[in-house]
């Protein structure tokens, strides 16, 4: 694409060099730059791209976009000076990849919990409707049926636009995307046009990055503030901040709730470990999901599908066909007669939701044994809270490792134990080795009991000292179950 056409997307403070040249690619990583590329120097959280301008030119960059011009100006390179390259990179990438979201119905899902489930279920539902669809999520990205591995909940703006461009080129009509708070603050979604946004809930998370809950809330809200007038903003009235999210949006506001009268009202009529009978807007539907938090997620899916123009009766048929997302309340029955549930719950609120869902179905007929840890090099403040919530809602708790990263596992466990009272400690043990912790829970379990294995869900690795080794909670369970036969 001609540079002069790309520059229409931004307000340049100064341009040095020729703008009538072809740009062959765009990148923020100097190592990925090739001949004829545009290199955008961004001041990131880990490194400042301005320090790598000379390296990008060595690798073939013919256009440098920056906030501060380098001391030495190369005669065969065009320099574009902007006030905010972090904001601009998304707009430049969107333009370079042909404005893919103008050809797609892009729906963003944001909140602390439920993003992956809602985005994935919408993706699965619209494929059941017969559409080609895309998914951008924590677990995996999909271009219709093709899996594209992912490292971040929301990719960087260049990867994101490249992915959306491929989705548009391959005929996808709808794309459902998790929108993380990091991606809003870091302007990774700058330049994208959303057809709709969904708010799930907001509780304590990522305070290692945002520093305060207010900053975290503002990041989520900024997504809705920037939605266009023609989009929809679907919010959860059962969260106390549900109305805050949409109070300044230009989009058409709609709401869903299990407790209040609103556009999309739901109620759990019956529940078991096989599924639920729901009432949604006075129509009944059987679903293969467990727990009120999943009833809320399904309401969001129903509401979004309605707002995207699907008929309510057709949506209910598709809802009944959907299955739970991998690692999200993933229930398996042991040969010994107990139930083991693998779930991604890694915040205090998520643990409360999952444990309360278990109690709603169990109704005192068995004990609840929880295996839980906390990630290293992340928000330390939530560790004692996670232990406390687990102890209050479980008969036995085994505190173990999650992804310790560069911290000592025992230090993380000690932080969790600090949140427990003497009475709590009577039902808590700690086992550093996660596999041994799961095995111990299975040995303790009796018929009718439920084991919750929380924190890793879909993850198939354990991150220790910068090395990711294979570890899958579900595989560990299957191995234990084989030994019970």
Automatic annotation (TrEMBL):
SUPFAM superfamilies: MurD-like peptide ligases, catalytic domain (SSF53623), MurD-like peptide ligases, peptide-binding domain (SSF53244), MurE/MurF N-terminal domain (SSF63418). Its EC number is 6.3.2.13. It catalyses: UDP-N-acetyl-alpha-D-muramoyl-L-alanyl-D-glutamate + meso-2,6-diaminopimelate + ATP = UDP-N-acetyl-alpha-D-muramoyl-L-alanyl-gamma-D-glutamyl-meso-2,6-diaminopimelate + ADP + phosphate + H(+). GO terms for biological process: cell division; cell wall organization; peptidoglycan biosynthetic process; regulation of cell shape. Pathway: Cell wall biogenesis; peptidoglycan biosynthesis. Meso-2,6-diaminopimelate binds at residues 378, 402-405, 455, 459. It is found in: Cytoplasm. It holds the Pfam family Mur_ligase_M. Its cofactor is Mg(2+). The modification N6-carboxylysine is found at residue 220. Carboxylation is probably crucial for Mg(2+) binding and, consequently, for the gamma-phosphate positioning of ATP. Catalyzes the addition of meso-diaminopimelic acid to the nucleotide precursor UDP-N-acetylmuramoyl-L-alanyl-D-glutamate (UMAG) in the biosynthesis of bacterial cell-wall peptidoglycan. Belongs to the MurCDEF family. MurE subfamily. This is UDP-N-acetylmuramoyl-L-alanyl-D-glutamate--2,6-diaminopimelate ligase. It comes from Phocaeicola plebeius. The lineage of its organism: Bacteria, Pseudomonadati, Bacteroidota, Bacteroidia, Bacteroidales. The gene is murE.
């Amino acid at each position: 694409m001609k540079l002069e056409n790309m520059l229409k997307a931004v307000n340049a403070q100064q341009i040095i060099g020729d703008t009538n040249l072809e740009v062959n690619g765009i990148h923020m990583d100097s190592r990925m730059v090739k001949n004829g590329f545009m290199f955008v120097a961004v001041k990131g959280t880990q490194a400042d791209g301005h320090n790598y301008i000379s390296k990008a030119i060595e690798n073939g960059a013919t256009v440098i976009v920056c906030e501060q011009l380098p001391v030495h100006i190369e005669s065969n390179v065009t320099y574009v000076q902007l006030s905010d390259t972090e904001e601009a990179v998304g707009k430049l990438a969107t333009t370079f990849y042909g404005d893919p979201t103008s050809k797609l119905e892009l729906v963003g899902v944001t909140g602390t919990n439920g993003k992956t489930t809602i985005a994935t279920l919408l993706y699965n539902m619209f494929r059941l409707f017969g559409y080609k669809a895309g998914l951008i999520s924590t677990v995996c990205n999909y271009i219709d049926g093709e899996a594209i591995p992912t490292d971040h909940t929301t990719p960087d703006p260049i990867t994101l636009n490249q992915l959306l461009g491929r989705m548009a080129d391959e005929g996808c009509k709808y794309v459902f995307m998790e929108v993380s708070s990091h991606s809003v603050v870091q302007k990774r979604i700058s330049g994208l046009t959303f057809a709709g946004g969904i708010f799930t809930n907001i509780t304590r998370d990522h305070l290692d990055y945002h520093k305060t809950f207010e900053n975290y809330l503002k990041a989520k809200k900024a997504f809705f503030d920037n939605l266009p007038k023609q989009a929809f903003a679907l919010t959860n009235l059962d969260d106390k901040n549900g109305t805050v999210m949409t109070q300044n949006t230009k989009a058409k506001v709609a709401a869903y709730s299990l407790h209040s009268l609103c556009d999309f009202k739901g109620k759990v009529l019956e529940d078991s470990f096989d599924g639920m009978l729901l009432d949604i807007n006075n129509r009944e539907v059987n679903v293969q999901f467990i727990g009120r938090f999943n009833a809320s997620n399904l309401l969001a899916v129903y509401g979004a599908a309605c707002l995207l123009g699907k008929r309510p009766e057709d949506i209910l048929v598709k809802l009944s066909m959907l299955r739970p997302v991998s690692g999200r309340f993933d229930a398996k029955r042991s040969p010994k007669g107990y139930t083991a549930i693998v779930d991604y719950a890694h915040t205090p609120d998520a643990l409360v939701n999952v444990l309360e869902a278990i109690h709603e179905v169990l109704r005192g007929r068995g004990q609840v044994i929880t295996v839980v840890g906390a990630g290293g090099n992340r928000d330390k403040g939530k560790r004692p809270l996670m232990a406390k919530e687990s102890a209050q809602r479980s008969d036995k708790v085994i505190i173990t490792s999650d992804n310790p990263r560069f911290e000592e596992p025992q230090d993380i466990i000690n932080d969790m134990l600090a949140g427990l009272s003497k009475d709590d400690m009577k039902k808590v043990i700690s086992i550093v080795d996660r596999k041994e912790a799961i095995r111990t829970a299975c040995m303790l379990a009796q018929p009718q009991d439920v084991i919750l294995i929380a924190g890793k869900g879909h993850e198939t690795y354990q991150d220790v000292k910068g090395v990711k080794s294979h570890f899958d909670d579900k595989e560990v369970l299957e191995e234990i179950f084989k030994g019970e036969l």
